[in-house]
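Researcher: Going back to the complex we discussed earlier. I've cleaned up the inputs and rechecked each line, so this should be the final set. Can you rerun the prediction on the complete assembly and write out the structure?
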Amino acid sequence: MADHAHKLEIFRGLIKFKSNTQKIWGVLILLSIITTVEVALGIYKPEWGRTPFLSMKLINWVFIILTIVKAYYITWDFMHMRDETKAMRLMVVWTAIFLICYLFFILIQEASYIFEIYDDGYIKRDF
Amino acid sequence: MDNTVVSTGTEGKTWGGGNQPLKASYGKMMMWFFIVSDALTFSGFLAAYGFSRFKFIDAWPIADEVFTHIPFYHEPAPMIYVAFMTFVLIMSSVTMVLAVDAGHQLKKNKVIIYMFLTIIGGLIFVGSQAWEWATFIKGDYGAIQTKGGNILQFGEYVEKDGEAVFKRVALKDFAVTDDHAEREQHLSKNGIWFLSEGTLPSFTVDEVLHGLEANSDILVRTQLINEDGEKTVLSRSESLQQIKNNGKLVVEGANLHVNEYGSPLFADFFFFITGFHGFHVFSGVVINIIIFFNVIIGTYERRKNYEMVEKVGLYWHFVDLVWVFVFTFFYLV
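Model: Rerun complete. Updated structure for the full complex:
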């Protein structure tokens, strides 16, 4: 295990760390910045965030994308996915991503339909 | 041990066994597969939450109005406490990965220190979550539930920086208590036919209605979200009408049946998802403690291999990973 090699580049080689320990602190800084941005957006709720985009508020998409970025760095650098073989990476990541996207698509789609049924007044809820 | 290994003459061949095509040990790979299946479980819960939310997209509680509490600080401050929890978990993830790194270098003392810090971080997180639950269960303003199961909240317009801002008012600040309407909670020692009775609310619907009639500034706020992304506030006459005609139950705090902040589903999902995640954190702490003692007594030092630390590390990072999503979908979106 002592000869375990780590890939020390993030951002496709834009930032290169000298040691694994340094990379860990670097990734921590990155995750902290993203979380701070998320919290700041959550508290101040900028005006542009309310624009509707793909059946959600724009800011929600920003939050979701930032979350996926964070998840990527946790998996790739903290869980050392970056150092695993390609087959291992594909097996774990794409299985999960495919099933999760499918599940979310089906459920959110149906929920919007049920909302319309309520909204069109076929079922009375306001009493 | 040696005599249990049977020589088959296929050693070193592709199909002879003993190969690691993925260059990962059995244990580590199985931990990854467990993580995939657990990730699917959590996404099932979050997708179900998304389903209920899109189903009631125009009436869902606004998280910023629900989770506003910080210990020892009494002004509403949304996001701050949960941001603190997120940082604690990310920090404990960092100390965990540092422990794994120290394990690769076979530095026992460093592994001990970093694992200890990870366990402390995990305990702080679980403790914070318990406090968050307690605050949520207790509630703060109280509300009235209608016959249709909708929640009506109370508040008044106050001047703030030259603008009229809707400020919530707690039931206890305006309800007129009627001493004759006081009702004892039914206890098993008082009745032969006792089945069970939950805690009684502090007020009856009539007391709240009388309080509303007596305070002409107080208005009712419904669950419906208007174009500005805020909950709809009714006019004075509509407010009185709603409480008089539809008010059925006084709700204080949240549990699996009622929720003073809005749809009971919100509370159900909150308890279930954060509870399931908190249980993962708790079991992660327990596993970490076991591995921590194994490190101290030198099990892995003798093996010259700290892979167990790496495996429990994978689980711990996964718990952090899930929290990142729970944080987004419960508190931000």
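Model: Worth noting: Chain B is about 55% helix and 10% strand.
Researcher: Good, that matches what I expected from the previous run.
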